[in-house]
Write a structure and sequence with these properties.
The chain is mainly alpha-helical. The protein has a domain of 135 residues. Helices cover 69% and strands 2% of the residues. Strand 1 and strand 2 form a beta hairpin. The longest helix has 30 residues. The chain is flat.
Length: 254
């Protein structure tokens, strides 16, 4: 284990990234656990308030992210500066992204259906950093030979092509595939070749006069969501807690 860590993490200079990822994941889990206990009325925990103002943990998260980011940059390439800065940055990022939905909606939606977006962003971020840590480089150009490294035109073409595939996947309403496709090229190609999701820019532009393609896209999206929405929600509930049910809507007056 020590030899593997030295060869694959320390020597390539990935130790700060590993520390940032570990502190990011652990920090996300810590406030989620505490807030779930507060929600259930268990433990000695409570909301942080001052002068009647509820201080969300995104506030110290922003401060730690700024301090850790600048600290890592100012620490140079040697010593404990980059490692310490990476840990502080990971802690801050975990606190911030745990309340990503609150920032997006500018409202306390932590335990609502919209709050699931925080869990999605955290999982996506951790997965992408994990891929980079595992050895993948953006655009899939990390395994080039010496001759390929000298062929800058080929590298640029590879990068540009994969970026375009990711853009096509994004325009087809496949945001997750587009993001992962930046790191894993085959994912971008698959996302670019498959049918667009209904309502996506690609669908509105190219399926407008193709009713068969539009109907096929709607049917495929329905089947995909029917198959994967329940497992995805179950995983999100297990990681971040189940949202509160929506309040009943008042009856409409005739």
């Amino acid at each position: 284990m020590g030899h593997w860590l030295q060869r694959n993490i320390v020597e390539p200079g990935k130790l700060p990234l590993l520390l940032a990822l570990a502190s990011f994941v652990l920090t996300f889990l810590a406030p989620r656990t505490v807030t779930r206990l507060i929600r259930a009325g268990k433990g000695p925990f409570g909301n942080v308030e001052t002068g009647g103002l509820h201080i969300h943990h995104v506030v110290p998260g922003v401060i730690l992210t700024v301090v850790g980011g600048f600290g890592a940059v100012a620490g140079g390439l040697h010593g404990f500066g980059p490692a310490l800065g990476a840990v502080v940055f990971g802690v801050g990022a975990g606190l911030v992204l745990d309340e990503f939905a609150l920032i997006l909606h500018l409202d306390d939606v932590y335990w609502t259906e919209a709050g699931r977006q925080s869990v999605e962003v955290v999982v996506l971020t951790a997965a992408l950093v994990g891929l980079v840590l595992a050895g993948f480089s953006p655009f899939g150009v990390d395994d080039l030979s010496e001759d390929e490294l000298q062929n800058r035109a080929g590298v640029a073409l590879n990068v540009t092509g994969n970026f375009l595939f990711s853009l096509v996947a994004l325009s087809k309403g496949k945001a997750r595939i587009a993001v992962f496709g930046v790191i894993v090229p085959v994912v971008a190609v698959i996302g670019a070749l498959r049918l667009a999701r209904p309502g996506s820019p690609w669908s509105r532009r190219f399926y407008r006069r193709r009713p068969r393609a539009r109907a096929k896209a709607v049917l495929r999206a329905y089947r995909h969501d029917l198959r994967w929405s329940a497992p995805r929600r179950a995983v999100q509930d297990w990681i971040g807690g189940k949202p509160d049910p929506d309040p009943p809507r008042p009856p409409e007056r005739g």
